[in-house]
Amino acid sequence: MQQLTYLGPQKLEWQEVPRPKLCSDEAALVRPIAVARCDLDLYVAMGAYKTPGPFAFGHEMTAVIEEVGDSVKGFVPGDRVIVPFQIHCGTCDNCRRGWTNACTAVSPYAAYGLGTHPTSDYGGAFSDTVLVPYADAMLVTLPDSISPAAGAGLSDNVADGYRTVANGLREFPGEPVLIVGGLAQSVGLYAMHAALALGSRRVVYADSDDARLSIAKHAGAEILKLSDMHTQTRHEDDFLIVVDASATREGLMYAMASTAPCGFCTGVSGGLSGMMELPLASAYMKGINYQVGRVHSRVVLHETLHHACQGTIDPLAFVDEVLSFDDCIEAMLDPRPKLVFCR
Ligand SMILES: [Zn+2]
Ligand SMILES: [Zn+2]
């Protein structure tokens, strides 16, 4: 079968590889039909993360079931499904707590298309066939009302943006939200959409990028242009709910400095370098809650899917064209904040 393979910085290639086999009675084989480019994919494809290739590329996907193991109860061949990018079993202690990003039944950080599981070959979202080792635990039916293109990102970047504001707005209904946009391009914009959908009375989207600011303005957010180096040190107001999607030191400092005493600041990235200083003394004095970590993809998917079905969050709100799988190598370094490909 054909598989889009990451070989090295700016080097993606279609390769002929063996089709995966059902690894157990709980597994399924699926054929991806739509793929969204995760924010991370752009930097992985550029080589910014120095992840050694080769590995199957792409991880936000919807698919059609091709085969299921004998003990799979929820799905049959032909079903359309959303495939969460994190591989997880659904039954270990961590999965039962809802921590699907930390399943102990698979290797740490096991996911499709990111080169994080060198010993297991699940495939990538641009492979002809992908192995889903725990079909009932992982897969979610794609409703008829949601297109494959719209469903592809619901378990990753849409969920990642959603969870940064959902808990805060549940606890403090209507509360203003500040989002510092940046390198996690679509996650910041989805956080902005989620904050509006969840009833925040004031959503401020701050960024140095005019294209993303224009998207946020069009969606109904109050926008604030930051200089490239964020020479502004903080927003003039304090916010109880703050999101740092910048993945830069300047953005993180701005976000934490703008977080109100006892407020909540969520970071959606560890940055490109992996090392960043934190303003701990002021965070300590204010008593802010800084959360950083990967989304629990499968758990949050229920909520993003609900909003997509209700029409309150549109995963394609800032996608201006749907591309073909054949375009993916050429398009992967396109600077637009979200790309979607259909087979
Ligand atoms: Zn991703
Ligand atoms: Zn597990």
Note the beta-strand portion.
15-25%
Chain-averaged pLDDT: 95
- Which percent bin holds the helix content? 25-40%
Distance between the termini: 14 Å
> What fold name goes in the CATH topology slot of the largest domain?
Quinone Oxidoreductase, Chain A, domain 1
- H/E series: EEEHEEEHEHEHHEHEHEEHEHEHEHE
How is the biggest beta sheet arranged? 7 strands, mixed
Rounded to an integer, what's the Rg over CA atoms? 19 Å
Number of helices: 11
**What's the number of structural domains?**
2
CATH architecture of the largest domain: Alpha-Beta Complex
Top CATH class of the largest domain? Alpha Beta
What does this structure look like?
- By secondary structure, this protein is α/β, with parallel strands linked by helices.
- It folds into 2 domains: 2-156 and 295-342, Alpha-Beta Complex (Quinone Oxidoreductase, Chain A, domain 1), CATH 3.90.180.10; 157-292, Rossmann fold.
- The protein is built from 11 helices and 16 strands.
- It has helices at residues 39-46, 93-96, 135-138, 148-151, 157-171, 185-197, 210-219, 249-257, 280-286, 297-310, 328-331, and strands spanning 2-8, 11-16, 28-36, 55-56, 60-68, 80-83, 130-132, 140-141, 177-180, 203-207, 222-225, 239-244, 259-267, 289-292, 322-324, 340-342.
- The strands form 3 sheets. Strands 3, 5, 6, 7, 8, 15 and 16 form a 7-stranded mixed sheet that branches. It has a 6-stranded parallel sheet with strand order 11-10-9-12-13-14, sandwiched between helices. It has a 3-stranded antiparallel sheet with strand order 2-1-4, with no helix packed on it.
- α5 packs parallel to α6.
- The longest helix has 15 residues, at 157-171.
- The protein binds zinc ion (2 copies).
- Residues 88-89, 92, 94-95, 103-105 line the site of one zinc ion.
